[in-house]
Design goal:
Chain A: Belongs to the MinE family. The structure holds 2 protein chains of 2 kinds. Chain A is of the alpha+beta class. Chain A is built from 3 helices and 2 strands. Chain A has a two-stranded antiparallel sheet. In chain A, a hairpin with a 4-residue loop joins strand 1 and strand 2. The termini of chain A are far apart. Chain B has helices at about 15-30, 45-50, 60-65, 70-75, 100-110, 125-135, 145-160, 165, 185, 195-200, 215-220, 225-230, 235-245, 260-270; strands at about 5-10, 35-40, 75, 85, 115-120, 135-140, 175-180, 205-210. Chain B has a single domain (about 1-265), classed as P-loop containing nucleotide triphosphate hydrolases (Rossmann fold). The longest helix of chain B is centred in the N-terminal third of the chain and has 14 residues, at about 15-30. Chain B starts with a strand and ends with a helix. Chain B is globular, with a radius of gyration of 18 Å. Chain B is α/β, with parallel strands linked by helices. Classes of the chains: A alpha+beta, B alpha/beta. The interface between A and B is medium-sized, with 16 and 16 residues.
Chain lengths: ~90, ~270
């Protein structure tokens, strides 16, 4: 069977399952406060930005990517352009 | 000294009730006084799997609330006389289980039996917490599948933090029971291997129950598999697991069905 799978180049799935679990559980064990931390970071970062510009909630995208060694929190805010001065004809 | 054992998993459908029945029966078959307690209030099934569904009069909640005496609610198994079952309520709400009431019932059961085996409901809420609260030992039932392993990890965390023993700073003995295991698929890399699951969950292995037709057949018949077919592969695995629970050290193997030529030919012709 193994020579067949290698012949067709299809990788076995169990090692993938193991790796996914190891990464996921490392994060989950690190504490349940993790998800709260993300929510808090998001809230406070937005607060700071709102002090300076008005931000539309719908134009804020937050992504999280939990990796084995490092996690990435990505906050994508669409900053509205400063309104051009009204033209006078 | 009675031992309270919780059979738990987090995830549903992994084999908690099947394993509770099989482990309970196997212990009783070796002469121990055993009671299996169904904590799945509202969705009771242990009675059905054990073939006692038509004999239920009172249940755990009746006893917890003082409406029935413990002796009235206990159902003696007809096949193994040292085995009893305390069914869950089918109609009542799980909130009817109070921590004080459960503590009282468990205390009373400890006096009567060698083993008190609590069949936990799925999930991590009240019912599951009450089922594990008084446990001295836990059997974590896990399938070699990602969602089951993840949920088992959560449950292990809860066993170490929210049980009575944990709160007293004492240890609770945790054992992994790997169920529905298919050694051939694991060897082909299609299923998590025992070593993978053990490495991830890092609790000692109680046994490996191979995927088997005998398990469904047993529940169809209303018999723990260790009674319906004691020499089948899953039964041998459960008997070994029970010896480990009793403190024996045995090498863990995956029992396989001993198939005759006739079985093999028959299976071919049907397939």
């Amino acid at each position: 069977m193994s020579f067949l799978t290698s012949l067709f180049g299809r990788k076995t799935s169990a090692p993938i399952a193991r790796d996914r679990l190891q990464i996921l559980l490392a994060h989950e064990r690190a504490g349940e406060g993790q998800s709260e931390l993300i929510a808090k970071l998001q809230e406070e970062i937005l607060e700071v930005i709102k002090r300076h510009i008005s931000v539309d909630q719908d134009k804020v995208q937050i992504k999280m990517d939990r990796g084995a060694g490092v996690s990435m929190l990505e906050i994508d805010i669409e900053v509205p352009e400063a309104k051009p001065a009204a033209k006078t004809a | 000294m009675a031992k309270v054992l919780v059979v738990t998993s987090g995830k549903g459908g992994v084999g908690k009730t099947t394993s509770t029945a099989a482990l309970g029966a196997a212990l009783a078959q070796t002469g121990k006084n055993v009671v299996v307690v169904d904590f799945d209030v509202g969705l009771r099934n242990l009675d059905l799997v054990m073939g006692a569904e038509r004999r239920v009069v009172f249940d755990l909640i009746n006893v917890v609330q003082g409406d029935a005496k413990l002796a009235q609610a206990l159902i003696r198994d007809k096949r193994v006389e040292t085995l009893s079952i305390l069914p869950a309520s089918q109609t009542r709400d799980k909130d009817a289980l109070t921590p004080e009431g459960v503590a009282r019932v468990i205390e009373e059961l400890r006096e009567k039996f060698d083993w008190v085996i609590c069949d936990s409901p799925a999930g991590i809420e009240r019912g599951a917490q009450l089922a594990m609260y008084h446990a001295d030992q836990a059997v974590v039932v896990t399938n070699p599948e990602v969602s089951s392993v993840r949920d088992s990890d959560r449950i292990i965390g809860m066993l170490d933090s929210t049980t009575e023993r944990a709160k007293k700073g004492e240890k609770i003995d945790k054992h992994l029971l790997l169920t529905r295991y298919d050694p051939a698929r694991a060897a082909r890399g299609e299923m998590l291997r025992t070593e993978d699951v053990l490495e991830i969950l890092s609790i000692p292995l109680l046994g490996i129950i191979p995927e088997s037709e005998e398990v469904l057949r047993a529940s169809n018949l209303g018999m723990p598999v260790t009674l319906s077919n004691p020499t089948s592969a899953p039964s041998r695995a459960y008997f070994e697991a029970v010896r480990r629970l009793e403190g024996e050290t045995l090498d863990v193997s995956v029992p396989t069905e001993r198939k005759g030529l006739f079985d093999w030919l028959f299976k071919r012709s049907v397939a």
